[in-house]
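Risk register update: the risk of archive-format incompatibility is retired. Evidence:
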Amino acid sequence: MVDSKQKSYIIKALIPYLIAFYLFWAVYSIFIEPIIEKGPYLINLVGGNLIKLGAWTVPVLVLLKYLFKEDPWDYIKLRKNKLRGLVYGSLYGVVIIIYVTVSRLLTNGTLQFNPFFELDSWIGGVLLVGFTEEIVFRGFLLQKFEEAMGSKYANAVTALLFLLIHFPKWYVNGNLFIPGFMVNSIAFIFLFSILMAVLLKKTDSLLTCILIHSANNFAMFALGA
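Archived output:
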């Protein structure tokens, strides 16, 4: 049971982390990443992914270990219930691939499915994205907010934060002021985050969220999103 003093400590610790994290990622996405993408392919492939691991995953593990005095891998739920996480993650991963495929078919009337998209999208957008992003949002922030404010508000706050982290990239890609894109994307991402929170609670394994997130991105890239 977390008392009021501990709840206050959690919020006070999370606020500077969130400010630094969002500020860095906005600056990186808008000003630095486009330069890296125009450079040599190998630097883009390796450097971009290392920067994301360094900015997203490493700080969370450090904060959990040294600020919150937790075992990072136990806390983010990657050490136990691996089989349950694998089963649920695989099952719901297939479901979300089907959902994205049907949605695209209904929207466009046709399908162009290509699983052999670019290597950098495969590595950064599929294989690593579930690991980097789910550790931050469901493994760390969701659980810390639950300790501070309960599940109901924690789910909503985490979903909002997960939504906001996409805005810099949308701005760079020119999608931020396209009403149809924004309405669909905001609704999907917010509900996706809520689903991840529910499944994390049900399976007690972050592996579930990682697999589903990667499956979703695979479908997006394979369908040309």
